[in-house]
Design a protein that fits this description.
Structural class: mainly alpha
Radius of gyration: 25 Å
CATH topology of one domain: MetI-like fold
Strand order of the largest sheet: 1-2
Helix content: over 70%
Low-confidence stretches: none
Oligomer: single chain
CATH architecture of one domain: Orthogonal Bundle
CATH superfamily of one domain: MetI-like
Number of helices: 13
Shape: globular
Number of strands: 2
Largest sheet: 2 strands, antiparallel
């Protein structure tokens, strides 16, 4: 009887411990590669440290220096330019494509169109940037040769800013189309059929059924796009044709981190990283609060 009781206790103990054992690899990886580096970088942001020698405590000196640095605010403005200029085209285009994929007019052709539209997201961002460099190059670019032009697409920073926005739109639209398609599939056809019986028009079905039920997916898409867009780095740096760093007119905020790391100013780089985190957090919280207030209204 004692043996049976002991076996039962061990079985219960093992069953309780099994979830923690299965989750242990994730928690260990999270602590080693995310939590510890994040905490260490936060501490490092209050020091002047060049990677060797003694770290000198400067308090908020790194943050104050960045806030008073004109180039820092220029990179912040560039980052928000890329974010704001692509946001509406991507979200609206992705939603319209999702509706198109759901329509009966597409039919079985959606099996062909969906992978094609999603394909830019699969292509590595560096490869995409190199493709855009080939298309918009001055001497050997496809557009200049095709239309017999001599436009300096990549050398002119005002034009290059819009090419970067175009590249972001081309890459992101297909991914968010899939997100919206997932949202549309959760809406029951019974709701639309009931609305038709009540005499609802297509516009009324859109604004009183589809959009309200899609709000969680809109919020998810907006926040995910905010996080990825405010961390933009590869596109401006790869598309700039010169070997040197891109000028401040197109440089994103991430460049403040990488340039300080290259210069051995790890404390300043950490401070720039945490300021970027704070900006992403505030913009995301603002979107969350805006959605909640609209729901209450």
């Amino acid at each position: 009887m004692r043996e049976k009781h002991k076996h039962t206790v061990l079985t219960r103990t093992g069953s309780r411990a099994l979830p923690f054992i299965l989750l242990a690899p994730f928690f260990i990886t999270f602590l080693l590669f995310f939590a510890f580096p994040a905490i260490y970088s936060l501490v490092l942001s209050f020091y002047n440290y060049r990677g060797h020698g003694e770290a000198r405590f400067v308090g908020l000196g790194n943050y104050i220096a960045l806030i008073n640095y004109r180039v820092f605010w220029r990179t912040v403005g560039n980052t928000f330019f890329y974010f704001i200029m692509h946001f509406i085209p991507v979200m609206l285009g992705a939603l319209l494509l999702a509706f198109a994929m759901q329509s009966k007019a597409i039919g079985r052709s959606r099996k062909i169109f969906k992978p094609i539209i999603f394909l830019p997201q699969i292509v590595p961002v560096i490869a995409t940037a190199l493709i855009f460099r080939i298309i918009f190059a001055t001497r050997s670019g496809a557009i200049n040769q095709l239309f017999d032009l001599d436009t300096r697409w990549l050398e002119d920073v005002e034009i290059l800013r819009w090419i970067i926005v175009l590249m972001v739109i081309w890459r992101a639209t297909g991914w968010f189309m899939v997100v919206y398609l997932a949202g549309l599939t959760t809406i029951s056809n019974d709701l639309y059929e009931a609305a038709v019986l009540d005499g609802a028009s297509t516009r009324q079905k859109m604004f009183y059924i589809t959009i309200p039920l899609m709000k969680p997916f809109f919020l998810f898409a907006f926040i995910m796009d905010t996080i990825s867009s405010l961390k933009i780095f590869v596109e401006p740096n790869i598309l700039w044709p010169a070997q040197a760093n891109p000028p401040t007119d197109i440089a994103p905020m991430m460049n403040m981190i990488t340039q300080n790391i290259r210069g051995g100013n790890f404390g300043m780089a950490s401070a720039a990283g945490w300021l970027l985190f704070l900006i992403v957090l505030l913009v995301s919280l603002g979107q969350l609060i805006l959605f909640r207030n609209r729901d209450k209204g």
